Automatic annotation (TrEMBL):
<dbReference type="InterPro" id="IPR020845">
    <property type="entry name" value="AMP-binding_CS"/>
</dbReference>
<dbReference type="InterPro" id="IPR000873">
    <property type="entry name" value="AMP-dep_synth/lig_dom"/>
</dbReference>
<dbReference type="InterPro" id="IPR042099">
    <property type="entry name" value="ANL_N_sf"/>
</dbReference>
<dbReference type="GO" id="GO:0016874">
    <property type="term" value="F:ligase activity"/>
</dbReference>
<feature type="domain" description="AMP-dependent synthetase/ligase">
    <location>
        <begin position="50"/>
        <end position="398"/>
    </location>
</feature>
<dbReference type="Pfam" id="PF00501">
    <property type="entry name" value="AMP-binding"/>
</dbReference>
<keyword id="KW-0436">Ligase</keyword>
<protein>
    <submittedName>
        <fullName>Long-chain fatty acid--CoA ligase</fullName>
    </submittedName>
</protein>
<dbReference type="InterPro" id="IPR050237">
    <property type="entry name" value="ATP-dep_AMP-bd_enzyme"/>
</dbReference>
């Protein structure tokens, strides 16, 4: 077996001077420690979309002192409105730092912030709010209007307009709630690829566990973060950066042109995003931009494509033994909405070759198992259910004990993924359980097959394999996006792709269709294969 080269991210110099959080600090009160150990007056958070709160001027940068004061004033106002400890409160805003402010304010009084993705429709948002038993919703005016026209929202739920909540006077304070280890601090949403999102419960210490264990190893003093502000991953990154005294730009505009402009202006050492953002970036001619400040590209979520990673690590620069060298590291963190921190890490550089949907090794505080449906460990090389056991795993789905129990097997939390462990200990992800394709003569793993096609047909920028049902039974469809400026057509590539399928011993595609860059993409950037399966048809090869 080919020996794999392992890259270890270098320790951040800025982190070595920062105090490690004591055991009393967790996700519910992390800001207290950041304020006690770092410069509270220097700007730490920069915003591409200014934060607007009642009675304050528009803010495009924030110091820790400003964040602390604003969140305490908002906490006092919410307390006056009747919000109390343990109350679930939904937060449904336009993409802005308002999510962070609400997270801090609600935790200050011991209430439980429940984030909703800003792109959710009113009907789904209302159903979600009802499911979690929220006592109130903090929303902007546009989303309050949306909610007011839905039928699922219980009449007992109070609606508060974030833009008009009058902040309490700074002299008026509410005693900070004292969090215990298992107190809930956030109800985070899943991607909702199967319908209404599930509410993932994160607790004070569980949500903070990965941040604590990786403290001092986080890279870069300046971070450009494109993770949705309504997602748990963004709060996790914010905790890490602010606790070690770093600076972070929260970028809500995620189109490629805005992103490269932000990199050139802010000059981050680290760029953090979901995989979809990296896919979009790679549609550009990256050599045309100054990305030299970037030493680390940090992805969290699904495994990234080899061709895109190789393009990105050619950009940027990093210090190697004190010498600045061309090229960067791509940190491919594999995780899920149910985990307060990533599960696996695979670090790529110009010199590594750990691809083929290799997700690397789990973090050392995580126990991973590949199981069969009965909960028995399978042999190395055999595909099975990915199970995880860790303090950082969710406590469960809020108000949904049945689904919580169904995701547990043999003491492990099932991620919904199919994977295998290689002989050298590295792990490989092959598919989501729901996307595995079972044909009469073959079982195909769509994610692994997509990666294989992209590797052997470099004209393909991205592709999606789906199973469709036709008059003659199940069949395969391939949706293809070609490389920018690629002159070949999908129809011209189709015979070559199907010849590869035959050489691999797989059935050929009955249809190979062109797909657009943003077709069938969910709110968190995931391809909605469920929707693709229902809409795809056995259209003749190359006809679209």
């Amino acid at each position: 077996m080919k020996r794999r080269t392992t890259v270890t991210p270098t320790r951040s110099l800025s982190a070595t001077t920062i105090s490690t959080p004591p055991e009393t600090i967790g996700a519910g009160n992390f800001l207290d420690h950041a304020c006690a150990t770092t410069d509270v007056r220097a700007p730490k958070i920069f915003l591409d979309k200014p934060l607007v709160v009642q009675g304050e001027q528009s803010l495009d940068e924030l110091s820790l002192l400003q964040i602390k004061v604003l969140s305490c004033r908002l906490a006092a106002s919410l307390f006056d409105l009747g919000i109390r400890a343990k109350d679930p409160v939904a937060v449904y805003l336009d993409e802005s730092a308002g999510y962070l402010l609400c997270y801090l304010a609600l935790n200050h009084i011991g209430a439980i912030p429940a984030f909703l993705n800003s792109g959710l429709s009113g009907d789904i948002a209302s159903a979600y709010i009802a499911r979690i038993g929220a006592v109130a919703v903090i929303a902007d005016a546009a989303r309050i209007e949306i909610l007011s026209h839905t039928e699922a929202l219980p009449e007992t739920v109070s609606l508060y307009d974030f833009g008009v909540i009058e902040l309490a006077d700074a002299s008026k304070s509410v005693a900070a709630y004292r969090h215990h280890d298992d107190d809930p601090v956030l109800l985070a949403h899943t991607s909702g690829t199967t319908g209404i999102p599930k509410a993932v419960q994160f607790n004070h210490q569980g949500f903070f566990h990965g941040v604590r264990r990786q403290f001092g190893k986080t890279m870069g003093g300046r971070v450009l973060c494109t993770l949705p502000l309504s997602h748990a991953s963004c709060i996790s990154v914010l905790m890490s950066i602010l606790l070690r005294g770093g600076q972070i730009l929260l970028q809500s505009q995620r189109d490629p042109a805005s992103l490269v402009a932000a990199i050139e202006k802010f000059k981050p050492e680290m760029f953090a995003a979901f995989p979809k953002v990296f896919v979009d970036l790679c549609r550009l001619d990256l050599d045309a931009y100054d990305l030299s400040s970037v030493s680390w590209w940090l992805s969290t979520g699904d495994a990234n494509h080899e061709s895109h990673i190789r393009k990105l690590v050619r950009q940027g620069s990093r210090s190697v033994e004190g010498i600045r060298r061309k090229g960067s590291l791509f940190i491919d963190n594999f995780g899920a909405s149910e985990f307060g921190y990533a599960i696996f890490r695979n670090v790529h550089s110009l010199d590594t070759d750990n691809y083929g949907r290799c997700i690397g090794l789990p973090f050392d505080w995580i126990d991973v198992a590949i199981l069969d449906t009965q909960g028995t460990l399978v042999k190395p090389g055999q595909v099975g259910l990915l199970g995880v056991r860790s303090p950082s795993v969710t406590a469960g789905y809020w108000n949904d004990s049945v689904t919580t129990q169904r995701t547990r097997l043999a003491g492990y939390w099932l991620t919904g993924d199919l994977a295998y462990r290689a002989d050298d200990g590295q792990y490989f992800h092959v598919d989501r359980i729901s996307d595995r394709i079972d044909l009469s003569a073959d079982t195909l793993f769509s994610c692994a097959l997509e990666e294989r096609i992209m590797r052997h047909v470099p004209e393909v920028f991205e592709c999606t394999v789906v199973e469709v049902s036709g008059s003659e039974g199940k069949a395969l469809t391939l949706l293809v996006e070609l490389q920018p400026r690629e002159e070949d057509t999908v129809g011209e590539l189709a015979p070559r792709i199907n010849k590869l399928m035959e050489s691999w011993g797989h059935p050929v595609f009955t249809s190979i269709l062109k797909q657009s860059a943003h077709e069938h993409v969910g709110l968190t950037g995931k391809k909605l294969k469920r929707k693709l399966r229902s809409e795809s048809s056995t259209t003749p090869i190359g006809s679209r």
